[in-house]
Write a structure and sequence with these properties.
The complex is a heterodimer of chains A (about 375) and B (about 220). Chain A is built from eleven helices and ten strands. By secondary structure, chain A is of the alpha+beta class. Chain A has two domains: about 180 residues, no CATH class; about 160 residues, no CATH class. Chain A has a six-stranded mixed β-barrel. Chain B is about 35% helix and about 30% strand. Chain B is built from seven helices and ten strands. The longest helix of chain B has 18 residues. Classes of the chains: A alpha+beta (about 375), B alpha/beta (about 220). At the A-B interface, helix 2, helix 8 and helix 11 of A face helix 2 and helix 3 of B. Chain A: Its main location: membrane.
């Protein structure tokens, strides 16, 4: 006896259910299709959300590791002093501190000219990487040109440009900043800090090795600089990334909600199919009851039918969803393997569970109705 | 000798929208093991109602049903189902086989829900006995009317009942096939000591019966 026969022997409701479903293959097939679509919708919308989130966090890069300190204008503080910067350097954890003095100015090279943001920094190497040339640890002379500015000026390392009348030699063209940054270098130039007018700093960037270090640094800075008065605003980009993560969480729930609607529709179609098929089989069920099959067994049999539809739809839907996820990820993220994340399998599991649950739930009413019909009525011709 | 089934003063009334129909009026009836009883009567005489009450498919409005000496009138649905499974085999005019199951599986149906390791063996033996040993795995649509009714007889016998209830068992069969099914009934009641109660229009059946009861307007004549 095969294993399947053995299973049928132990769970006779399954055998009956399996045979009953094969009676009208098109109808069963359509019911399964409904569940497939529902499961596919939930699972692939869930995975779609994951892909969005992964894509977004790639865009955001490591900004979670940065904090920005700016003077608190509301308290009448317009810039950060050398003492503030020194204090920040003293308290931060595992971080590099870059003090920035900002201005705007006109940059010219030959006939070309453009208005840019000018950042005065002593140690831009902590924030930027070169696309061409070299970013020195200590910027004492020369200028670093953002990629956008370099393009407008058609400039490369070694060229000279003039900024507000002062001439500089370009040390490096900076790599394009893809993500979000509070001191975006793309349309800016970076010059030695003493070349920018003023004595204080407009902001201080703290670049940490980890999100946790950034967080600890932020706390330490608040404690030491804002002890007596609110001298500075400390802005953690982590707050943004958390917000964004939260947003994607909401988006995912929303998407899955939409998917669930299709599963509800599928449930209604199963309800319809099961109701039709139990009405058609009234007499048969009456015979079953007459020959000694209990009500509970009739209910089990019909629930098994609904459950089988759900399992079939769920499994096929899960496989298709996995395929859809692979296609989506290779298209959007260029990385099909990004599909194989724990969270995606949870979505698939959730979708399959929902699918089977919906099916069984939809089978309840027909099962109850069939089991409670009096055999005498059912057997009447 | 004790009766295997007995109806005492059984009344059955239906309320059909204001009008009360009396399907059975003070029916007293009994059958003994090994006895072949036919119930005859015009349609609407209450034959089917009587068979349903005898088969524990319906409960009387008044009166008592005794099965093997026990009062089974007021049992719950689950208890009645258990009693049916244990005591009663049903045979219907239109066979009522399950079209998706093979002959063998159809015979097994009454044993299916419940742990019954020898069921397949018994079903096979029964099908061989009714002359369908070579048709075990045929589906009902591959069998003739007489063969279907034989499968139904085997199904009715699979739980080794004490009573066989047949509702127009030859109604859908030609005369010759009907006769062969009746021969089978005769053999069963003699060999297995089963009481056979058949409701019918068919005068042919009365030739086989020990007793024939006439039912008119719910009353035994």
């Amino acid at each position: 006896m095969s294993r399947l026969d053995d299973l049928y022997r132990r769970v006779p409701a399954l055998l009956m259910a399996r045979r009953n479903l094969s009676r009208n293959k098109i109808r069963s097939g359509l019911a399964v299709l409904g569940i497939i679509i529902g499961v596919l919708a939930i699972a692939s919308l869930g995975m779609f959300g994951t892909t969005l989130r992964t894509g977004a966090s790639q865009q955001l890069g490591e900004i979670g590791n940065e904090i920005t300190i700016s003077p608190n204008f509301q308290e009448g503080i317009e810039e950060l002093s050398e003492r503030d910067v020194a204090e920040i350097r003293r308290v931060v954890v595992d971080s590099e501190v870059v003090a920035v003095r900002t201005d705007t100015g006109l940059v010219t090279r030959g006939q070309r000219q453009t208005v840019v943001t000018i950042y005065g920094m002593e140690n831009p190497g902590a924030l930027y990487e070169a696309q061409d040339g070299r970013v020195p640890d200590r910027l004492r002379q020369g200028v670093l040109v953002g990629s956008g500015t370099a393009e407008i000026l058609d400039a490369e390392p070694g060229n000279t440009i003039s900024i507000d009348g002062r001439t500089y030699r370009i040390s490096a063209v900076l790599a394009e900043e893809q993500g979000i940054s509070l001191v975006n270098p793309n349309n800016a130039v970076v010059v030695p800090v003493e070349d920018v007018n003023g004595t204080g700093y407009n902001q201080v960037i703290v670049s940490s090795e980890s999100g946790q270090a950034a967080n600890e640094s932020a706390i330490a800075i608040r404690e030491s600089l804002n002890e007596r008065e609110e001298r500075v605003n400390v802005f953690e980009l982590q707050a943004i990334t958390q917000g964004i993560n939260q947003f994607f969480g909401i988006l995912n729930t929303f998407l899955i909600g939409i998917g669930s609607i299709s599963l509800v529709v599928a449930g209604v179609s199963i309800l319809n199919v099961m109701l039709m098929s139990t009405i058609e089989r009234r007499q048969e069920i009456g015979v079953l009851r007459a020959v000694g099959v209990q009500r509970g067994d009739v209910i089990r049999m019909i629930l098994a039918e609904a459950g089988l539809l759900g399992v079939a739809g769920g499994v096929i839907g899960a496989i298709l969803a996995l395929g859809a996820g692979i296609a989506l990820n290779s298209f959007v993220l260029d990385d099909p393997l990004a599909t194989f994340q724990v969270v995606n399998f949870l979505y698939i599991l959730l979708a399959v569970g929902f699918g089977i649950g919906t099916s069984v739930l939809s089978g309840l009413y027909p099962a109850w109705k069939a089991a409670n019909e009096r055999p005498v009525e059912a057997l009447r011709k | 000798m004790s009766h295997i089934i007995e109806l005492q003063h059984v009344w059955k009334r239906y309320d059909t929208g204001g009008e009360i129909v009396e399907a059975l009026r003070d029916v007293d009836f009994h059958a003994d093991p090994g006895e072949f009883v036919t119930v005859m009567g015009p349609s609407g005489s209450g034959k089917s109602t009587m068979l349903n009450v005898l088969g524990l498919l319906d409960t009387p409005t008044e009166g008592t049903v005794l099965l093997d000496g026990q009062d089974v009138t007021d049992l719950s649905d689950a208890e009645m189902t258990t009693q049916r499974k244990q005591f009663i085999g049903f045979i219907f005019q239109s066979f009522h086989l399950i079209p998706t199951l093979s002959a063998l599986e159809n015979v097994e149906v009454p044993t299916l829900f419940g742990d019954d390791p020898t069921a397949r063996e018994r079903a096979t033996t029964l099908l061989e006995r009714v002359g369908l040993g070579d048709r075990l795995h045929y589906r009902p649509d591959q069998l003739s009317g007489g063969q279907k009714q034989r499968v139904a007889v085997a199904r009715a016998l699979v739980n080794e009942p004490r009573i066989l209830l047949a509702d127009e068992p030859t109604g859908n069969l030609d005369r010759k096939t009907g006769r062969s099914v009746l021969d089978l009934f005769d053999e069963i009641r003699r060999e297995d000591d089963v009481a056979v109660i058949a409701v019918t229009h068919d005068p042919q059946i009365t030739e086989y019966a020990d007793r024939t009861i006439e039912l008119v307007d719910g009353r035994i004549q």
